[in-house]
Specification:
Layout (H helix, E strand, L loop, with lengths): L1 H30 L4 H23 L5 H35 L5 E10 L13 E4 L7 H11 L3 E4 L3 H9 L5 E5 H10 L3 H4 E11 L16 E8 L7 E2 L2 E10 L4 E6 L5 E2 L9 E2 H4 L4 H12 L5 E6 H10 L3 E5 L16 E5 L1 H9 L8 H20 L3 H4 L1 H8 L3 E3 L3 H14 L4 E6 L2 E7 L7 E7 L1 H15 L10
């Protein structure tokens, strides 16, 4: 009776193992990230093991020792296969999701004085001052708060006028977008301590999915726009682009050029406006506006984009156990004054790395030095994730953390091709960096034409140099041939 029971279990395990073997094979084929030589080898070994174990487990004449050993091996391999399936499906889900460009949302803020006693439940029928910010969601926002809160909206001529009316208690409420909020924070040292954000209103902005690009990602040199936006949480919120970096990639030669553009670069973002604007403000109008502004500035073509936000950077760095980054100056970051960064190598957690990447006030070159710090942090993350077992051991956790705060229009098949190429050839990437420069100035901007704001006037020599480096790579030149 016991022998019959054992035979049933062995037969059951043989069926389970065969089923899992087939699922693993199909999953790997669908994801298509394994190079052909590894794929063929895996399928052959998997089929061989499957046949041998099934034979040993289902034939009665096999010796008990061999049968028991086969049973143990089938159980252990089944557990391994379950993990393989989980990791593979998790990868497939992530790669599919980040390429699924969804509708985005623009944020507006209803603000009162901190000691006003106002909240979401007692502002009905009050007056609220607003400034038309030229964003596509402004009218929808105005209509929404008029309907939901029954507010009496009053349009004013400038953000400064609106804020002065609030401070002087001539109006109880004001409404701003993130650009105006940032301006008021930067130009009024008491702003944060004196106001209360009663509500954050999100307005849906429709996004048109672009047609697929005819690029052989392993043969053609391509350029990716990396936009780091100044929000936490979901990537669906349009916001200022504080990090503006181009990665020009030649997978065939294993070379990458990182070109960074200061956030305050004074660029054209609307052909009909007499004013340029800060590049960071272009992000408010959508990633396509940022891309068009950079393409016009550098006279290049951007093929893809990647958007990440602050929460993804903080979470990933914490998950991989921090990164080692060199600082050429001892400083207390302006955005997090609880921290102290020493001159030399600092082991940074996510909060410190983010504060370091955002710091500009400690440097004489301001924004230019900030983008250098951003590149240093990015390089440290890449180094940590590719030079140890960190990526393998934290793999699913990293995907979980960044899935909702990461977006790209690189198609799934192209992402799979890059992974497959890395596994097949394991190229030692040669990465070089270039930073555009400029001179500080005070100018009127497209997003706030009523007041002057700090901007950086592009240094035309560095713009020309960036164009020559990127176009040189597109033409097939190596970085060494371009003087890097």
């Amino acid at each position: 009776m016991k022998k019959k029971s054992n035979n049933k279990f062995e037969l059951f395990m043989s069926k389970v193992f065969v089923f899992l073997s087939i699922v693993v094979a199909l999953t790997i084929l669908v994801i298509n990230v394994l190079p052909f030589k590894y794929l063929a080898l895996f399928l052959a070994i998997d089929a061989f093991i499957c046949l041998v174990l099934r034979f040993f487990l289902t034939h009665n004449k096999i010796k008990k020792g061999i049968k028991n050993t086969s049973l143990v091996i089938s159980i252990l391999l089944s557990i391994v296969y379950i993990f393989v399936i989980y990791y593979a499906l998790r990868t497939y889900g992530f790669m599919s999701n980040v390429n699924n460009i969804k509708d985005s949302y623009r944020q507006y803020y209803i603000i009162s004085l901190k000691d006003s006693g106002l909240n979401k439940n007692n502002i009905n029928n009050l007056d609220i001052e607003m400034y038309d910010d030229n964003t596509s969601g402004f009218d929808e926002f105005k209509e929404k708060i008029e309907k939901e809160y029954k507010l009496n909206t009053i349009l004013v001529n400038s953000v400064n006028e609106m804020y002065e009316d609030l401070i002087n208690e001539e109006v109880s409420l004001i409404a701003v977008n993130s650009i105006s909020k940032d301006y008021l924070e930067s130009n009024n040292k008491d702003f944060i301590d004196s106001i209360n954000v009663i509500d954050t209103v999100k307005i849906k902005i429709k996004t048109t999915k672009k047609s697929s690009k005819k690029i052989d990602i392993l043969k053609d040199t391509f350029t990716v726009y990396i936009s780091g936006i100044d929000t936490y949480g979901s990537i669906d919120t349009t916001s200022r682009s504080d990090v503006n970096m181009l990665a020009t990639v030649n997978a065939k030669n294993g070379e990458i050029l990182l070109t960074s553009i200061p956030r305050d670069y004074y660029v054209k973002i609307d052909e009909k406006s007499e004013y340029n604007d800060k590049l960071t403000h272009a992000g408010i109008y959508g990633v396509d506006t940022s891309i068009k502004a950079i393409e016009d500035l550098l006279d290049i073509k951007i093929d893809y984009h990647v958007r990440v936000n602050f929460s993804s950077a903080v979470d990933v760095i914490d998950l991989i156990g921090g990164v080692d980054v060199y600082s050429d100056l001892a400083l207390v970051p302006w955005t997090n004054q609880k921290l102290y960064i020493e001159e030399g190598i600092n082991h940074m957690d996510g909060d410190m790395a983010l504060a370091f990447a955002r710091e500009r006030f400690s440097y004489s070159t301001g924004d230019v030095h900030r983008v250098q710090n951003q590149q240093d942090v990015l390089m440290a993350i890449i180094d940590k994730m590719t030079s140890s077992s960190t990526l393998l051991t934290k793999y699913t956790q990293i995907l979980d953390e960044i899935e909702d705060s990461f977006e790209t229009d690189i198609e799934f098949k192209d992402l799979a091709s890059l992974v497959r190429n890395q596994l097949d050839k394991n190229p030692k990437w040669n990465i070089k960096r270039y930073i555009l420069n400029g001179e500080g100035s005070s100018e009127y901007t497209y997003s706030m034409p009523d007041v002057k704001a700090y901007v950086m006037i592009p240094d035309i020599d560095t713009v020309i140099k960036a164009n020559s480096l990127i176009t040189g790579m597109i033409e097939g030149k190596k970085l060494s041939e371009l003087g890097l």
